[in-house]
Design goal:
Radius of gyration: 14 Å
CATH architecture: Alpha-Beta Complex
Number of strands: 6
CATH class: Alpha Beta
Strand order of the largest sheet: 1-2-3-4-6-5
Structural class: alpha+beta
Number of helices: 4
Largest sheet: 6 strands, antiparallel
CATH topology: Aspartate Aminotransferase, domain 1
Shape: globular
Number of domains: 1
Helix content: 25-40%
């Protein structure tokens, strides 16, 4: 079994990092009527519906990631297109990436309009899924 990647960011610095990114992300996601936030796996996560289906997950160096990101469930072809078009901005996150989730790097001058668009698309996709 391969070793887990080691982050160059200390746990203390990682916990302190991401404040401005998280604040901006919260503003976007809390504006979506019907969304709610709670901690899941130690990170802020957003849900929709009475069953609490996840549509966005914050990543503050979780699993040793080198950057701060948000994960959105996207169709696999959307994930592949985004990553191919701009690998400095998008990546396939651990565990959920194989299901099409796309990670958007927030710690490198993100395109906040794209983040908002993906948030709304992901919310709608999960809220209307049967």
């Amino acid at each position: 079994m391969p070793a887990k990647p080691q982050s160059t960011v200390s746990k203390r610095k990682a916990k302190a990092a991401g404040g401005k990114e998280l604040a901006r992300l919260r503003k976007i996601l809390s504006a979506i009527d019907g969304s709610f936030e709670k901690l899941s796996h130690g990170e802020p996560t957003w849900f929709v519906g009475p069953k609490g289906r996840c549509f966005a997950m914050f990543d503050n160096h979780h699993h040793g990631a080198e950057h701060i990101s948000v994960y959105f469930p996207t169709p696999k072809e959307v994930q592949e297109a985004l990553i191919a078009s701009n690998p400095e901005r998008y990546w396939s996150p651990p565990y959920v990436g194989k299901s099409g989730w796309t990670a958007v790097i927030l710690s490198r001058d993100p395109d906040w309009a794209a983040v908002e668009r993906l948030a709304h698309e992901s919310f709608t996709r999960i809220a209307t899924r049967r």
